[in-house]
Design goal:
This protein is mostly helical. Helix content is about 70%, strand content about 5%. It has 11 helices and 3 strands. Strands 2-1-3 form a 3-stranded mixed β-sheet. Helix 5 (about 95-110) packs antiparallel against helix 7 (about 135-180), helix 7 (about 135-180) packs parallel to helix 11 and helix 8 (about 195-220) packs parallel to helix 10 (about 240-250).
């Protein structure tokens, strides 16, 4: 195993364990600092124009990736420093523990019948309008958010970390954060956020497919997950959320999708795994457990793939005639 692949594997594993142990801090999170910087750039650059939005995306995501690349280069000769940098970057970009914590809190409130607490906490997890949702609708929103964010907040980052090391981790999180900030189809961001949304679709494509595959393999109903993914994954308006939510729906044996509301804007989405029952509060804990299994398998898969590719390349180099 080449030293570079070994240090990445150690650092990624340590960062993953760090997220499991402590989750996201309430203050001073690096992703929040990036978001504030991106908002400052937007205030100075915003025009109702795709070109300005593309410039915003390039400046913010490109700047984050360049900074990470320079940091990686500065520690390339010191293995402990490379491990530490990879661990810190992995911890910073992953959000699986906080995702599960917030989802479980809402699930507990729903099972206790406390809809007011559930509505109060729902905006911590997703952008739905909580006042327009009853208990089952909130449970469905949480399960959908757990599924989608397993891909966005964990698996996608691990995929790009395996491909590009620390710059890959940071670049993916920057792109995903920009999409959350400006990538939605409001009047302000329909054109300005177009580049961020399209780049996020491209960056999220491999992670979403790996998430769906692992959810199918690790879930309680692999056949149901596979059927729902194949039948309904392409019906979702998002090319990446579709396979993920459909595979989770099939794995858990529940029905997702349908009508939802975002701050006064109503959307009618296709139903995923339509023959199944509606989501209940107890399904939230099941979704979180599935998310954790998928996340752990994603770490093993991506690190293993990086090591395997490195070994194949090293073997090819040794076979070349001198």
């Amino acid at each position: 195993m080449r030293a570079g692949h070994a240090t990445y594997a150690c650092g990624a594993a340590l960062g993953f364990l760090g997220d499991l142990a402590v989750g996201d801090p309430r203050r001073g999170h690096p992703v929040a600092a990036f978001g504030r910087a991106a908002a400052a750039v937007e205030r100075g650059l915003w025009r109702d124009h795709r070109g300005y939005g593309a410039a915003h995306t390039a400046l913010c995501a490109g700047g984050a990736a360049l900074g990470a690349a320079l940091l990686s280069r500065s520690v390339r000769r010191c293995a402990p420093a490379r491990i530490a940098l990879t661990a810190a970057a992995t911890w910073a970009v992953l959000g699986g523990t906080t995702l599960g914590r917030e989802a479980r809190a809402i699930g507990g409130a729903l099972e206790a019948g406390d809809l007011d607490v559930a509505r109060e906490r729902l905006p911590h997890l997703c952008g739905r309008d909580p006042q327009s949702l009853d208990g089952p609708q909130m449970a469905r929103a949480v399960v959908e958010s757990v599924a989608e964010n397993t891909s966005d907040a964990v698996v996608g980052a691990l995929v790009w970390g395996a491909v590009g090391g620390v710059p890959g981790l940071v670049a993916f999180r920057a792109v995903n954060t920009l999409d959350a900030m400006v990538g939605h189809k409001s009047d302000r961001y329909r054109r300005y956020g177009w580049a961020s949304a399209r780049l996020d679709d491209v960056a999220g494509w491999p992670g979403a497919r790996l998430t769906a595959l692992l959810a199918t393999a690790a879930g309680p109903d692999p056949r149901g997950a596979w059927r729902a993914w194949r039948a309904d994954g392409k019906r979702h308006p998002s090319p990446n959320a579709g396979p993920v939510e459909a595979s989770f729906a099939g794995a858990l044996g529940v029905r997702l999708g349908g009508t939802l509301a975002y701050a006064g804007r109503v959307e009618h989405r296709p139903v995923l795994n339509g023959g199944a029952r509606a989501v209940e509060g107890a399904d939230i804990a099941r979704a979180v457990r599935l998310s954790r299994r998928v996340s752990a398998l994603a770490l093993a898969t991506t690190v293993g793939a990086r090591i395997a590719v490195g070994a194949v390349r090293a073997a090819r180099r040794t076979r070349r005639p001198r």
